[in-house]
From TrEMBL:
Residues 132-252 form the GFO/IDH/MocA-like oxidoreductase domain. Signal peptide: none annotated. InterPro entries: Gfo/Idh/MocA-like_OxRdtase_N (IPR000683), Gfo/Idh/MocA_Oxidoreductases (IPR051450), GFO_IDH_MocA-like_dom (IPR055170), NAD(P)-bd_dom_sf (IPR036291). GO terms for molecular function: nucleotide binding. Residues 5-121 form the Gfo/Idh/MocA-like oxidoreductase N-terminal domain. Pfam families: GFO_IDH_MocA (PF01408), GFO_IDH_MocA_C3 (PF22725). This is Oxidoreductase domain-containing protein.
């Protein structure tokens, strides 16, 4: 059994969840904490009773600790240098979403993972929820027929403070990646094109655009429509969004909470209601995603959220941002052409 020697890069609030998970595993040891603020690493070590090395430089941390796995829990603009350095130094990597702060950087990381033969997997914790898996299974069961339309509404008003409120596209880059990735997960389809409009609602406390409407053409011929805001006060949706999937024989809905059902019609026009089956027995959220990634590394297979797959969700994010900037429809193929050429070599 492989013993995972982990360096945690980034000692902000989110790192607590990752460290708590690692300490549950008998095959995992935290051997280093890295942060550009020495006091942050020290405080994290004290909080969790860790006696590992504390560093401000990732290369030094890996070299001195003998790490073979890096948790990249840095801010999005630091993912390319952090995950890239770890892969170059022979470590597998598990990184927070988004994979990188640009599509080109994400493509470079996916290619680096392929060339080194080391795994790079991304935290897409919202795939690992019993309800989203139940909804996916209901949609894919065929009860509503071939899919023609997918809609997701996401309206909340969180006040984070910090870097999110200063980002140019906080909703799409930092949050919509979850919903976009869920759309691919639910349908099994990939994006073909996107038309997006971003803006700010009156009274928004975000510097960048915190509201957006995006329409994607998908590879199965369906249309995925995303409507969202991070500054919409009143009548909030679930963090998982409110979903509607329409097919040739009916519609499946999920309110993001407990209502998951389909209404379908037979040839005689008779309606039938079908409730989702909650059969998935994995752990939810971060723990479920990390369980799958660790199992994939042990078995030598790609994780469900490996870099090669996650690039497609990232293309949805950056395609939407590019569409908004250009005020035009953006085709996905040119965005992913560089990655496709990598995969062919």
């Amino acid at each position: 059994m492989t013993t995972w020697k982990v360096v945690v890069a980034g000692c902000g609030q989110m790192a607590n969840t990752w460290i708590e998970y690692a300490r549950e595993r008998e095959d995992t040891e935290i051997v280093g904490l890295v942060d550009i603020r020495p006091e942050a690493a020290l405080q994290m070590a004290d909080r969790h009773g860790l006696s590992c090395g504390l560093y401000s430089d990732l290369r030094e941390a890996i070299r001195r600790s003998g790490a073979n796995l890096v948790f990249d829990v840095t801010t999005p603009n630091a993912h390319r240098p952090t995950s890239g350095t770890a892969l170059e130094m022979g470590c597998h990597v598990i990184a927070e979403k988004p994979m990188a702060s640009s599509l080109s950087a994400a493509i470079e990381l996916a290619e680096l993972s392929r060339k080194t033969g080391l795994s790079l997997s991304i935290m897409q914790n919202r795939r690992y929820l019993r309800r989203v898996r139940a909804f996916r299974d209901l949609v894919k069961s065929g009860v509503i027929g071939p899919i023609g339309f997918v809609g997701a509404d996401f309206f909340l008003a969180p006040r984070f403070g910090g870097f999110r409120e200063q980002m140019a596209s906080p909703l799409i880059l930092d949050m919509a990646i979850h919903t976009f990735d869920q759309a691919r997960f639910i349908t099994g389809a990939d994006p073909v094109s996107v038309t997006c409009h971003e803006w700010n609602l009156p009274g928004s406390w975000y510097t960048g655009h915190a509201s957006a409407v995006c329409t994607f053409e998908m590879s199965d011929g369906s249309v995925f429509n995303y409507r969202g805001s991070w500054s919409a006060q009143g009548f909030p949706t679930s963090w998982e969004a409110a979903w509607r999937v329409s097919g040739s024989r009916g519609t499946a809905i999920w309110d993001g909470d407990d209502r998951i059902e389909a209404e379908s019609f037979n040839e005689a026009g008779e309606a039938k209601r079908t409730e989702a089956s909650m059969d998935w027995d994995g752990r939810e959220g971060h723990a479920g995603c990390l369980d799958d990634i660790f199992a994939a590394m042990a078995e030598g297979r790609p994780a469900e959220t490996c870099a090669a797959d996650n690039v497609k969700s990232m293309a949805m994010v950056f395609g939407a941002m590019e569409s908004s900037r250009r005020q035009a429809t953006v085709q996905m193929a040119p965005l992913l052409q560089e990655y496709a050429s990598y995969r062919e070599t």
